[in-house]
C-alpha cells in the first residue's frame, strides 16, 4: 500500500479556472481565488507579486468572493500604494551592493585575494565582475540549512513541542509551514532576517503543532510563545520584499 503524502497546514488549492481582474485606481489587479475549507469568512490579501488573493470559505462562491474584493477596493488601493513604495533589491548584485544578512545591512566587498566578503563571511567566485547574486544566495542557503534547523530544535525543546523533522527550502511565497505529521519547513531567506523575526516565524509554525488553524486559540498560543510577535510581523510587512 502506498503511503499517503504528508499533508501540510498551509494547503495550496488551485485558483479559479477563469482568470479574473479588478480595477483598483489606475491599476488592473489580477485576482486569485483560493478555496479554504477551514476558513470562516472571505479574506483578501495583496501578495508581493501584485496578485490579490481572495480566500473562499467553505460553502462560499467565486461570485461572492469577487464581490467581497470589490467592496474592499479602497483597502486594495492603499495596499498597492504601500507595495509600490517598498524598496526592492537590485536584480544584479555587484561589489558594493548591500543586502540584508541576519537583519543587518551587509555590503559586498572584494579582498586582496579576490575573495568576495560580506558580514564576516568570505567566498570564492569564478568572476568577481559578474552578477554575484546567484553565488551569494547559494552560499546563504548553505548557511541557512544547519542554522535554521538547529534553532527550530532549540525552540521546540525549550517549549516542550514535539516535531518530526525540519526542512529548509527555497519557498517563493511562504516563510514557513507545519505539517500534520509534525514537520516544520522554513524558507532559507530567514537567515537574512533579524533573529527576533526568524524566531517568530519558527514559533508561529511550532504553535501550529497545538492548533492547526488560525483561530483565537492559535494566536493566544503565539502570543504566549512570542509576546512581541506583532513587531516581527510589522518588520516582515515593511522589509520582507528585501529578502525576495
3D structure, described in words:
34% of the residues lie in helices and 22% in strands. It is an alpha+beta fold and 244 residues long. Among the domains are: 20-85, no CATH class; 140-243, Metalloproteases ("zincins"), catalytic domain (Zincin-like, 2-Layer Sandwich), CATH 3.30.2010.10. A hairpin with a 2-residue loop joins strand 5 (98-101) and strand 6 (104-107). Helix 3 (133-158) packs across helix 4 (195-207). The protein is globular, with a radius of gyration of 20 Å.
What topology emerges from the helices and strands here?
Layout: E1 20-24, E2 27-36, E3 43-46, E4 52-57, H1 62-71, H2 73-85, E5 98-101, E6 104-107, E7 109-110, E8 116-118, E9 121-123, H3 133-158, E10 165-169, E11 176-178, E12 183-187, H4 195-207, H5 216-225, H6 229-239
Parallel strand pairs: 2-4, 10-12
Antiparallel strand pairs: 1-2, 3-4, 5-6, 7-8, 8-9, 11-12
Amino acid at each position: 500500500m502506498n503511503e499517503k503524502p504528508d499533508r501540510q497546514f498551509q494547503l495550496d488549492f488551485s485558483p479559479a479556472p477563469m482568470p479574473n481582474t479588478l480595477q483598483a485606481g489606475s491599476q488592473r489587479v489580477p485576482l486569485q481565488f483560493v478555496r479554504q475549507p477551514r476558513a470562516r469568512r472571505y479574506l483578501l490579501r495583496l501578495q508581493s507579486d501584485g496578485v490579490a488573493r481572495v480566500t473562499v470559505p467553505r460553502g462560499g462562491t467565486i461570485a461572492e468572493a469577487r464581490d467581497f474584493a470589490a467592496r474592499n477596493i479602497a483597502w486594495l488601493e492603499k495596499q498597492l500604494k504601500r507595495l509600490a513604495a517598498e524598496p526592492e533589491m537590485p536584480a544584479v548584485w555587484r561589489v558594493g551592493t548591500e543586502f540584508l544578512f541576519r537583519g543587518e545591512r551587509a555590503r559586498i566587498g572584494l579582498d586582496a585575494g579576490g575573495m568576495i566578503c560580506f558580514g564576516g563571511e568570505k567566498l570564492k567566485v569564478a568572476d568577481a565582475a559578474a552578477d554575484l547574486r546567484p553565488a551569494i544566495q547559494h552560499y546563504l542557503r548553505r548557511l541557512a540549512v544547519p542554522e535554521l534547523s538547529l534553532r527550530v530544535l532549540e525552540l521546540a525543546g525549550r517549549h516542550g513541542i514535539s516535531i518530526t523533522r525540519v526542512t529548509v527550502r527555497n519557498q517563493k511565497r511562504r516563510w514557513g509551514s507545519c505539517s500534520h505529521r509534525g514537520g516544520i519547513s522554513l524558507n532559507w531567506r530567514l537567515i537574512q532576517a533579524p533573529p527576533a523575526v526568524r524566531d517568530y516565524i519558527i514559533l508561529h509554525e511550532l504553535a501550529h503543532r497545538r492548533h492547526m488553524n488560525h483561530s483565537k486559540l492559535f494566536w493566544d498560543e503565539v502570543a504566549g510563545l512570542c509576546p512581541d510577535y506583532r513587531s516581527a510581523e510589522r518588520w516582515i510587512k515593511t522589509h520582507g520584499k528585501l529578502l525576495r
